[in-house]
Amino acid sequence: MRIIVAITGASGAPVAERLLEVLKKGKHQIYLIISKNGEAIVRAEADLAKVKSYADRVFREDELEAPISSGSFPIDAMVVVPCSMKTLAEIANGVEENLIVRAALVSLKQRRKLVLVPRETPLAEPYIVNMLKATRAGAVVLLPVLTFYHSPRTVQDLIDFIVGRVLEILGIEHNLYKRWGNEGFSEGA
Length: 189
Ligand SMILES: Cc1cc2nc3c(=O)[nH]c(=O)nc-3n(C[C@H](O)[C@H](O)[C@H](O)COP(=O)(O)O)c2cc1C
What we know:
single chain, 189 residues, alpha/beta, Rossmann fold, six-stranded parallel beta sheet, 7 helices, binds flavin mononucleotide, EC 2.5.1.129, FMN
């Protein structure tokens, strides 16, 4: 698959890093966009060089002339992980200020899969309204919530659960966590 992954300035860079690692292992083509604020948070929470190394192409948020700005460029799906409340608001309200929001709105207009992984808590009313608007526009809002039915032992297990959920929306098979009702726990992609 050809997948756009966008990282914005919310906490959660390790989730993006793991998603990129798994997509790379699966030989998917990855177009990575990192916002200015996202880059600062990746530096604090993960390894920026490693994150970039998984991508086939890396774009800055101001590279609006990038091929992925156009609906004619073949892309199968886009994931914004983590998705800040600011980027969520721009996507939900159609404010195309940078390449991330442009590519997300192109995904919606082309009826492609768009997964948003917002990270904020507690939620102010405008955040909830924007999640509703984004959902109504066709995006999947996937909250990186804590889950315990897969018997996580490490933070990595919790991250893998979220990454697995994203992959399920993209239609990509994985073995990142024990599904409800299945025996055994399998690690790795
Ligand atoms: C250390 C730090 C952590 C932040 N964490 C979050 C967060 O978890 N969720 C969020 O919505 N915004 C968070 N913000 C605020 C965003 O970075 C800010 O709204 C920014 O303008 C987002 O821009 P972007 O979406 O273009 O990356 C954080 C900011 C800083 C400095």
